[in-house]
């Protein structure tokens, strides 16, 4: 988290274009309606919450990144960790986590939490070059029914039920 707090000022300049490409791939595959609720786990500056037609909640532990999130009418942001998501079971129709899983302290606990608060659609990505790749792939397959896997330039994205 210290790293992300330290680069918060330039985060969007560094990663916005890359994140938007991943989000576009996710948008094309998820059926999101105005009635849905979406949770973005590891939302950073909120890039991946922009433009969804539904209510969105972003959660991230880095206060400095959250401070840079653009206010949006249908979006709220909270400081917190993926391992302790402060919502009741089945609170969200859709849960996404874009390029964050490899950074979580306890990825297994984070995936269990995402599964707990989610209802039916999940999109989870992490860096292909992550040293934890094999572990992360096996954990995703352990807790979710994987419908599709796509590889982007830097990430691998799992679409799950």
- Number-wise, the strands total 7
Low-confidence stretches: none
Terminal CA distance:
29 Å
Order of helices and strands: HHEEHEEHEHEE
CATH topology: Rossmann fold
What is the highest CATH level, the class? Alpha Beta
Name of the CATH superfamily: Vaccinia Virus protein VP39
- Estimate the mean pLDDT confidence: 91
Taken from the alpha-carbon principal axes, the silhouette is globular
* C-alpha Rg (nearest Å): 14 Å
Strand content: 25-35%
Helix content: 25-40%
Please identify, by name, the CATH architecture. 3-Layer(aba) Sandwich
Domains counted in the coordinates: how many? 1
Biggest sheet: strand arrangement: 3-2-1-4-5-7-6
State the helix count.
5
Oligomer: single chain
What does this structure look like?
The chain is an alpha/beta fold. The chain has a single domain, classed as Vaccinia Virus protein VP39 (Rossmann fold). The protein is built from five helices and seven strands, in the order ααββαββαβαββ. A seven-stranded mixed beta sheet has the order 3-2-1-4-5-7-6, with helices on both faces. Strand 6 and strand 7 form a beta hairpin.
Task: Give a brief outline of the structure.
This protein has five helices and seven strands, in the order H-H-E-E-H-E-E-H-E-H-E-E. The chain has 161 residues and is an alpha/beta fold. Helix 4 runs parallel beside helix 5 (133-143).
List the helices and strands and how they pair.
Blueprint: H1 2-6, H2 11-29, E1 37-41, E2 55-60, H3 63-66, E3 75-79, E4 92-97, H4 107-117, E5 118-127, H5 133-143, E6 146-151, E7 155-160
Parallel strand pairs: 1-2, 1-4, 2-3, 4-5
Antiparallel strand pairs: 5-7, 6-7
Helix pairs in contact: 4-5
